[in-house]
Design a protein that fits this description.
By secondary structure, the protein is an alpha/beta fold. It contains eleven helices and twelve strands. It has an eight-stranded mixed sheet, with helices on both faces. Strands 5-12-7-8 form a four-stranded mixed sheet. The protein is globular.
């Protein structure tokens, strides 16, 4: 079997059929679909059972207690038998022939540990949706993929196909909201080749009740915590990575730190101040310090909100 497709399901009766149909209608057929019902309370469990009856390639695991997205994915990984693994969330779907195009690439390039493909981000929200275009590229330096390729901006678990062996001793962390960002750096430590392609398309559908839209201060702190180990090691990356890419990444994490303060009204001084000065915001950081920059950023956004309302 070439591919195991893992789909966590939790109260997705309105979108589940769209998701599953987008897979069973693919021209690529050599796969195992694993539906992990995370103790849903709507019609999702019975829908999963119907899919299993209709197609022998589909199986379902019904969990007795809701354990969260990470554990649902981990359950799917334990059931996976394919040479490769991919994840699709049950409120999303994939474009026709996506799997055929991706698996053809992997049939030629056995050395690829991970293959990443394009995404329609927040699809369905005219104000937020945008297409993540990816160029054909191969990375043998994982720091180049993370910083120059800006993988940290699209560290999603789902728009990627992985060699199953990468998860032999690795699992998604339980209790984390941004579990994919916590997991990808650990995956990269095992990789020798990562490729990006312009083939295929994942539809990441906008969900106003989803994790991203409903993220709390604690969730943003969790997101910040995922980045901190990398930030603390930035000085070691300097010889192999252009400093401008390091500064762009540091600015990205600084913005998360500012969001944490804005949402929590606290001053979490967990981000170390590093010697990057390439933007006005970074220069302000060194001039004012993190504490004052957090306060100014919060009041600036408050003024802008009043002006637009």
């Amino acid at each position: 079997m070439r591919l195991s497709i893992i789909i966590p399901v939790y109260n997705n009766e309105e979108t589940l059929e769209r998701c599953v149909t987008s897979i069973i209608s693919q021209s690529f057929r050599d796969y195992q679909m694993i539906l992990v019902d995370d103790a849903s309370t709507d019609k999702s469990p019975s829908m999963c059972d119907d899919f299993v009856k209709a197609d022998h390639r589909i199986q379902v695991v019904h969990k007795k207690e809701n354990a969260g997205l990470s554990e649902a994915r981990n359950t799917g990984i334990r059931k996976a038998r394919g040479e490769y693994i991919t994840f699709i969330d049950s409120d999303d779907y994939i474009q026709a022939d996506t799997l055929a195009q991706l698996m053809e690439i992997l049939s030629i390039h056995h050395e690829y540990d991970i293959l990443e493909y394009p995404v329609w981000e927040h699809y369905g929200n005219p104000k937020k949706q945008r297409r993540l275009f990816l160029k054909k590229n191969v990375y043998i330096n994982m720091d180049e993929y993370w910083f120059k390729g800006k993988a940290y901006m699209h560290s999603y678990a789902w728009n990627k196909i992985y060699k199953r062996e990468l998860f032999t001793s690795l699992s998604f962390p339980k209790g984390r909201k941004f579990e994919d960002l916590h997991t990808l750096p650990s995956l990269l430590e095992q990789c020798c080749h990562i490729a990006t392609t312009n083939k295929g398309l994942y539809y990441y559908c906008y969900n106003p009740q989803g994790i991203t839209a409903q993220a709390s201060a604690r969730d943003h702190q969790d997101l910040l915590d995922a980045h901190l180990p990398t930030v603390r090691n930035l000085a070691k990356k300097s010889p192999s990575v252009d400093k401008r890419y390091l500064a762009e990444y540091y600015t990205h994490v600084l913005n998360i730190q500012l969001d944490v303060y804005e949402k929590s009204a606290q001053i979490p001084l967990t981000l170390p101040i590093l010697p990057y000065y390439t933007t006005f915001k970074l220069k302000l950081l060194h001039l004012l310090g993190l504490r004052k920059l957090c306060i100014i950023n919060k009041y600036y956004h408050r003024i802008c909100h009043k002006h637009h309302s």
